[in-house]
Design brief:
Layout lengths: L2 H6 L5 E5 L27 E6 L5 E5 L4 E5 L5 E6 L4 E8 L2 E8 L4 E8 L6 E5 H8 L6 E5 L3 H4 L4 H4 L3 E3 L6 E7 L2 E6 L4 E5 L5 E6 L6 E2 L2 H7 L9 E3 L4 E6 L5 E5 L12 E3 L1
Parallel strand pairs: 1-20
Antiparallel strand pairs: 1-19, 2-3, 3-4, 4-5, 6-7, 7-8, 8-9, 10-11, 10-17, 12-13, 13-14, 14-15, 16-17, 18-19
């Protein structure tokens, strides 16, 4: 996605469900809250984690290029490392930890796995290569809707991207969930959910649609660096999936953080 828009925005969170095997489900029980205890401190950018059946947490220190193993007693060790790369999108199934490793600016992203008890990482799929060849959101159009040509010509693409554009090749896996059918990955930059099958085959499960057009105000135009003439016109932002989980009945639940101003229309709950 256009990173400038994401940084400039205060975005709403949306929840979408993708049906794999729909089934009726009862209302969830109310959550109960207990006291909180710090298990590990001093972590650098811990943006993703997963816990195995033994209570061991696997925490991605994304910008440090580390996957840390935090035992129930707080003992911390390195499960995997990739100096100079970002590690994230952690999930656990059985005795295997899944995570991604890459550098967004270079278009690299690998889905890897490592045994929960320790061992050498294994590369399962090249998500960067898949994005480069398939570009799932290539058919999506983002940006201004029906903006007059004379105003569109005033939009500075170096500030906030073109006035209107199709999905570009950009990869940044942000979350994953592991199932018996494979690992599902939310690609925040690719605006899509992809699946890595046990044999390593990569496929697109869903492409999140552009947001409903948001009317640009004079204040929003100034904040994003849009020309004043754009005020009053609609803008469809990229959806940016940020998390994925499997719910009852086999539904995939996906959260998104649209790269746009806070607006109730950007936070629907949908099911398909």
């Amino acid at each position: 996605m256009n990173k400038r828009l994401l940084v400039a925005a205060t975005a709403a969170v949306a929840v979408t469900t993708l049906g794999l095997a729909p089934a009726a489900q009862a209302a969830p029980s109310p959550l109960s809250f207990v006291s909180v205890t710090d298990r590990a401190t001093g972590l650098v950018s811990p943006l993703s984690f997963a816990v195995d059946a033994r209570g061991t947490a696997f925490v991605a220190q994304n910008f440090a290029g580390l996957l840390s193993r935090v035992a129930p007693d707080g003992t911390t060790s390195v499960a995997a490392s990739a100096p100079g790369s970002e590690i994230g999108a952690v999930s656990v199934r059985g005795s295997t930890v899944y995570y991604t490793e890459g550098i967004q600016e270079e278009g690299t992203a690998l889905l890897r796995s490592v045994p929960t008890g320790g061992g050498s990482p294994t590369t399962l799929a090249d998500l960067g290569e898949y994005e480069a060849t398939a570009n799932p959101d290539a058919g999506s159009t983002y940006g201004f809707v029906d903006l007059p040509a004379e105003c569109a010509a005033q939009v500075d693409p170096s500030v906030a991207g073109p006035a209107s554009y199709s999905g570009v090749v950009d990869v940044h896996p942000y979350a994953s969930t592991a199932t018996s059918a494979g690992v599902y990955v939310a690609d925040a930059a690719g605006n899509a959910i992809v699946k890595v099958a046990p044999d390593g085959d990569v496929s697109t499960v869903a492409v999140l649609p552009p947001t409903a057009p948001v009317t640009i105000t004079a204040e929003t135009a100034a904040a994003f660096g849009f020309p004043a003439c754009s005020a009053g016109y609609g803008y469809s932002f990229e959806p940016v999936p940020t998390d994925i989980e499997v719910g009852p009945g086999g539904w995939l639940y996906v959260t998104s953080l649209p790269g746009g101003p806070e607006d109730p229309s950007l936070a629907p709950a949908a099911r398909s």
